[in-house]
Amino acid sequence: MEKICHIAGAASAEKAVVTRRPGDLVIAADGGIRLLWRLGVEPDLTLGDFDSLGFTPEGENIVRHPPEKDDTDMLLAVREGIARGYRVFSIVGGLGGRLGHTLANIQTLLFIANAGGIGFLHGDGTVVTAVKDGRLRFPAGRRGLVSVFSAGERAEGVSERGLKYRLDDALLTNDRPLGVSNEFTGKEAEVTVKNGALVIVWAEDGFDPASSGVAFGGVD
Which domain holds residue 164? Predict the structure, then answer.
């Protein structure tokens, strides 16, 4: 697993996991610093307009942005990670808060996918990711539900292998939830999209992208 950029947001995340390994980067996005404090993790960088936190923290590596800005604090953190060469992002504290913020964070996953990387938005038993023109592989041993949605008007050449309901070279659209509630069977599984982008959601507690065995790649 390559080095990971960990980003903490301000939403509640009771089962959040942030495991820093050599070469990893940890960023607190605004109120996400409270989550890192609770976990005993010191961020390498803290940024945002600090409206969620309510004050500007003191110390080094603090970057304050004006409230009147185009990017969310989470997207600012992702941009910083990409600028520093990271392709894999682990985002905690980005689910279960205000619905508008959750949707914005899912769009941020697509921003990462468009940049050639992958982001995992996870917390409290749910993992969300986005894959563009590529595949996501799951190791054997998983159980539970997994759902696959078209992130744009069309996602072409979608296949689901190793799951309860097999899908071969299908077309998914953003106005019909055909890919909802498939099931892991314990076998190795793979979701592929040849042309377009997918949002993939599954259930998993304590998700850690470095040890999960989940891998992404391009279409052969």
Answer: 133-206
